[in-house]
Amino acid sequence: SGLIVVFGFLSVGIGFGLQNITSNFISGLILLFERPIKIGDRVTVGSTEGDVVEIKMRSTVIRSLANISIIVPNSEFVSSQVVNWSHGDKRVRVDIKVGVSYRSDLDTVLRSLREVAEEHKGVLKDPEPFVRLMEFGDSSWNMQLGAWISDPVDYYHVRSELNCAIVRKFRETGVEIPFPQRDLHIRSPLPVPLATGGQP
Q1: Other CB atoms within 10 A of residue 49 CB
Q2: Where along the chain do its domains lie?
Q3: Model-level pTM?
Q4: With pLDDT > 90 as the criterion, what percentage of the chain qualifies?
């Protein structure tokens, strides 16, 4: 009876193992036939972002942005949400939000942000970049710069360069990026009457 129990547990363990293998194998077939991803695509699966370098029957190899090979079970691509930055149209939009002081000239702000995008060689002219005043913050106008690029692989590089260019352009044109500010009002204390009448 002891052997029967042992074999029973082994059968359950093997069953679960085969279930995972079968699930990944079937998911691999789905990836090969439906092709939601392909080699060279920039994808995000969970917290993993990188380029697909190999698609095998049970797993897919992703090269992370830090040049690390990550083995992802194929079932993750079928059962989880996957962001494929390269699927269909590879163009992606870089959105940058920045706050500017209310003392700044609004027309200068709009013109400066547009010039930053137009002067960057990696930004597409079609669709053309745009600048929007999104909201009135506590201490700033909150602006948005939208610029399209041709390849998602360049996303973080272009975003960093645009941020640096915005800082330089604002310093050149006198536009201020404010610190959060709070006004503190202190009321004078009320006078406290002194006790009289000989009481201690």
Answers
A1: 18
A2: 36-88, 92-173
A3: 0.70
A4: 55
